[in-house]
Amino acid sequence: MTLAIETHQLRKVYKGRPVVQDLSLTVGPGEVFGFLGPNGAGKSTTVKMLLGLVMPTSGSVQVLGGSPQNPDVRRQLGFLPEQFRFQTWMTAREFLNFHGRLSGMSASDLQTRIPEVLEQVGLPGRGGEALNGYSKGMLQRAGLAQAILARPRLVLLDEPTSALDPIGRVEVREIIAGLKAQGVAVFLNSHLLSEVEQVCDHVAFVQKGQVLRQGSMQQLLGGAVPVEVRADRLPPELLSELGTLGTLELLPEQGGRPGVQVQLSNDALIPRIAQIVSRAGVQLYALTPHRTDLEALFLELIDTSGEGQV
C-alpha cells in the first residue's frame, strides 16, 4: 500500500531557528488527517515541504510514494492555500481551465469536469462570472474546485471553511467525505476544531515545530467517559448497582435534585445507566456524558507545553 504522506524526522531551520523539528507522520490513502496547532506552530512550513515548495533542512519526505519535487507526483496533488490569490480578471470557468491545463488535463476532459466541480462546491451556473465579482466565500469555493479539479490522490486544505457560512461548512464536510470514499487522502489544517472532529480519522497536534500528540480520533478522545446522573433520589441500592459500571462521585444538589458522576470505561455503557435507574423506580432528570472534545484536548496540550496563548 502506497502511503499518501510519509515523513521521517523532518526538520526545517530558518536563520538558525528551527521551525519544524523531527516531524514523523504517516497518512494512508483515503485517510483524512488533521494537522492542528496555534499560529507559528510550523503548519504552513510543513505543508510547503509536502508540496515541494520548500526544501527540508534534514529528514525525509515522501508523497504518494515519491518525491514532492517530481512533476508526476505534483500532478496528483490538490492544494487550497489559506491566503489564496487568484486571477480575478478571469471567469471561474477560465480560472479552472487555466489550472486544469497546468495539471495536464485535456480540453475535452475539462469541458466535462469544470461543470462537475462547480456543482460539487455549490457554484452551479456561475462559471461565466468573473472572479472579481465573487464574495470571499464564493472565492473559497472556487479555490476548492481548483484543488479537486484534476482528480488528485492527495488534497491539502489550509483553512478550507474559514470564509464559509454554516451551510458552506456542511458542504465542505460532504466534499471531504466524498473524497475519502474515492480513496483520496486529505491533509487538513483548520482552526475550527469542531469541524476537524467531525471529518478526521487521525490528528496531530503541533507546537513550536514539534508534535505534541498524534493518533486516531478514538485514541485521542476515547477512553473513560464521565457521566452525570440527576434523579429525584439516589437510594443506596441504586448507587451500589451504578458502582458496578465504574467509580462514583457524589455531586452537589442542583434544583433540589441529587446527582452522581459515573466514570465509565467507554460510552457503550451509557444506556446501561438509564436501564439501572429505570429498574430502581427512580425518576431520571438528566443523563449527561462529559466527553473530552478536540478543543479541550488542544487547549490542555498547548497549556501543558508552556504556551500561554493559542
From TrEMBL:
Belongs to the ABC transporter superfamily. InterPro entries: AAA+_ATPase, ABC_transporter-like_ATP-bd, ABC_transporter-like_CS, P-loop_NTPase. Pfam families: ABC_tran. This is ABC transporter ATP-binding protein. SMART domains: AAA (SM00382). SUPFAM superfamilies: P-loop containing nucleoside triphosphate hydrolases (SSF52540). Residues 5-233 form the ABC transporter domain. Keywords: ATP-binding, Nucleotide-binding, Transport. GO terms for molecular function: ATP binding; ATP hydrolysis activity. CDD domains: ABC_DR_subfamily_A.
